[in-house]
Amino acid sequence: MRIIKYLLLLLLLSFVALTIYIATQKGNFTVESSKVINSPKATVFNYVNDLKNWPKFSSWSSSDASMKSSFSPSTIGNGSSFTWEGSNDVGTIQTSYTKGNDSIVQKMRFNETSSDVYWSFKDTIGGTKVTWKSVGKMDFMLKVSSFFNVGAKNTLTKVYDKSLINLGKTLDFENNSYAVKINGIVQKLETYYLRQSFTSKISDITRNANAVFPKIIAFCKQNNIVENGRPFIIYHTYDSIKDLTKVSFCIPIKEQIFTSEGSDILAGKLVAFNALKTSLTGNYTYKNKALAETAAYKTAKNIQTGSTFSYLEIFTKGKNENLSPSKWLTEIYFPITPKVVPVPKVYKKIVKDSLAPHPAPVKHENEFDF
């Protein structure tokens, strides 16, 4: 009996010693995981940059059915945040900096472990190389897990590796599923709208739209202006060679208004027009596919477009309506150039009356005979 007591005491002392040892470890860590994802860089960046997509690929969220998530009013870019609470884990992540389609910097707290998170996106053979790096300090439970898994690198790398695999699978299906439909000639009804216009790189349209549309919507709310439909973009000019376009980002409104002088948000009216309509179902990054198919259709049908502007696109269904990019709907309208109807020539027949005398012409001053 005494031997058993000694063994239990020894076991207890060993446990205490191990606990003290683990607790006194520094716990600093750097973890990095990479994967090549078969999607364009802009597509992958935009998907990761929108925190509303994180529950679909983060391994700690997808593996916990009881996970409850909450988001900041804006889930994209600087200042956006995502908080989760599950059966075993709680945490939050906040985006502090983004650069184009290249990188994202975040602050993350997972249980009691805090870290700085760095994402990088690079074009490579086979798609986009995504690197997810985390630098931080472990809490006690992560130290315990790391001790039995031979280091934090093994523990967290498994989490990151699985998340990147989930990201790749999700994007493979969601972002590579699209369909283009040429709807034919339709009439686009008139509408009033608020707009902000400027010249932009074509490659920056998505990023600018994410910044400008919320700004105009906030302007509507502040001034009690009733919205009347989905956001749309008017491409006044479109130069794919120079990667430049003059655009107006527009929010339709119910009644015509007049904005104050000097405001960067202006009011306008879109007059009804006949247009060739094309529908793109799927991720917006496949818009060039829709433009190419429409161009081929116009050539085959000898349809002339672009009389008043290049084209207009309406974001009929986006991420706010459905988190799955394969379900998004963008409707594109190309204004039809009116056909020029030639004016028939009118020929006047002159009949000479040989019987009636003709009066002699009267000459006026400064007239000549030749």
Provide a descriptive summary of the structure in words.
Helix content is 28%, strand content 35%. It contains eight helices and 15 strands. The strands form two sheets. An eight-stranded antiparallel beta sheet has the order 8-13-15-14-10-11-9-12, covered by helices on one side. A seven-stranded antiparallel beta sheet has the order 1-7-6-5-4-3-2, with helices on one face. Helix 5 packs across helix 6 (152-174). The chain is elongated, with a radius of gyration of 33 Å.
**What is the ordering of alpha helices and beta strands?**
HEHHHEEEEEEHHEEHEEEEHEE
Mean pLDDT, nearest integer?
Answer: 83
Tell me which oligomeric state these chains represent.
single chain
Q: How many separate helices?
A: 8
Number of E-state strands: 15
Rg estimate, integer Å: 33 Å
**Envelope shape:** elongated
Poorly predicted runs: 361-370
What proportion of the residues form beta strands (DSSP E)? Answer: 25-35%
Sheet/helix structural class: alpha+beta
Q: Helicity level, as a percent range?
A: 25-40%
* Main sheet overview: 8 strands, antiparallel
**In whole angstroms, how far apart are the ends?**
146 Å
- Biggest sheet strand line-up: 8-13-15-14-10-11-9-12
